Amino acid sequence: MQIKVDFNEIPKEILKLAEKFQKNNFELYLVGGCVRDMLMNKQPKDWDLTTNAKPEEIQGICHHTFYENNFGTVGVVLDENNEKIEKIKEKIEKNNVSHETGLLEKELVVRETLKNIEITPYRTESGYSDNRHPDKIEFSNKIEDDLSRRDFTINSLAYNPLSSELIDLFDGLKDLKEKKIRTVLNPDDRFQEDGLRIMRAVRFSAQLGFKIEENTLKSIKKNKELLKNISNERIQIEFNKIIMSKSPEYGLNVTHETGLLEYFLPELEENVGVIQGAAHVYDVYNHILKALQAASDRDYPLYLRLSALFHDIGKGRTAEWSDKKQGNTFFAHEHVGTLMTKKILKRLKYSNKLVSHVTNLVKNHMFFSDPDKITLSAVRRVIRKVGGEKEVWDLIKLRIADRIGMGRPKERTYRLRMYETMIDEALRSPISVKDLKISGDELISEFHMKPGKKIGKILHALMGVTLEIPENNNYEFLAKKVKEYLKLSDEELEKLEKVGRETMEIKENEEIKKIHRKHKVK
Q1: Alpha helices in 298-388 (DSSP H)
Q2: What's the Rg (C-alpha) of the chain?
Q3: pLDDT in tens, 407-445
Q4: What's the domain range around 243?
Q5: Rounded CA gap, 447 and 483, in Å?
Q6: CA-CA distance, 26 to 57, in Å (whole number)?
Q7: Same domain, yes or no, for 18 and 150?
Q8: Cα separation of 102 and 34, whole Å?
Q9: Alpha helices, DSSP H only, in 348-489?
């Protein structure tokens, strides 16, 4: 891996801050994740800095700050940056040149990171009685003290943006090159200080594609019970980051192998080794993780990834062996799984909205059936049942992840494409006289017609002239045609009605054929 900090990539605002601190005889280092990301040629998500200045001195140097914690961390607000963000957004909306828009979007990403600037004094910590927060904090004048208290070596690197000095006390650069997650100094001490670091180790491993170093991994197994002392809200945050990483399958496997899973998601453990039928290559546990990984590979949002993770969570509790199938059957597993999913998500303090969305998908994920035996009206019932257009397409996405999790090479089979076709047909509005810019009520009120079959005949006759030439579908033209039709005999009007109905059928069939071509089905 190439290890290099591009000085030109550091925002000017950060350099100006460093210059201000230097003028006031203070040090200022970039530290933690932003240094790690720059060394990996990634765009930092935020900017953490550390200094030998105390909180009140930081506030004296920076104009707009907020200080609302017990750890000395001072947040810095760059008002001019927020103004620039709004101007860039306006330019992007108005710009039609793709190259220029790309540059503006890249600048916007950097600007968004500058909304999160935190400056913390060098400090030492001691006495972690709750295995989460230090009982005592003391500010220091030595950056070595501050780097020694950090969690992992790859997060303990400090960089001076003015002198380009890189401080690496614990071989963080070496671990970056070797793609290792290793604690600073003794792993038992680091995890006893903050039990959440156990989850963070797994999260960084999944996010970065790094392996957890052997002694660190042994310590995770040894200290796993520390997760009992961590709030579900904090566990949820790290869990989400594992789920939203590029390698959630790997990350959750690590939590299983280290015994962490039983402390925050024991229900998943129930599916380990549960054999499925012949259609499945994997046991339930591995099928679930493969489906989740497929959702990640397709960049699905959090709620869909959670739905993939929980869609078969109830199989372990509903498994019944079948000699005939040489595997287990799982009667009503989706209903059992829905109740389990709701309980899990509530326990992990997810929002009611997300709980509702995920449980809806888990409950209905077995909607898929043989399209040769299902009617459009049945498809419409499914759409209404799940909540609408967005939800039914989410089910299709979940089905794709589910299928890949079965070990199938094709993610979109002919059957699935046929079902997508039927959904498209069910969702589209059929061609109807309601599309006309004149209505039956207007024929009665404006042309003094009596309610009856003649109104329907005229409307269908109008459909014929508007479907052939869509521009004719305007009130002025249609009103003129109505006057002409009112002078016709019943026989002449019926001929025009027939033409209109035939034209509607032809256009309707053309629309259906377009949908079939879109999904590559006959």
Answers
A1: 302-310, 315-318, 333-347, 352-364, 376-386
A2: 32
A3: 876 666 777 788 888 888 888 877 888 889 999 999 999
A4: 182-264
A5: 8
A6: 10
A7: yes
A8: 23
A9: 352-364, 376-386, 389-405, 414-427, 440-447, 453-468, 475-485
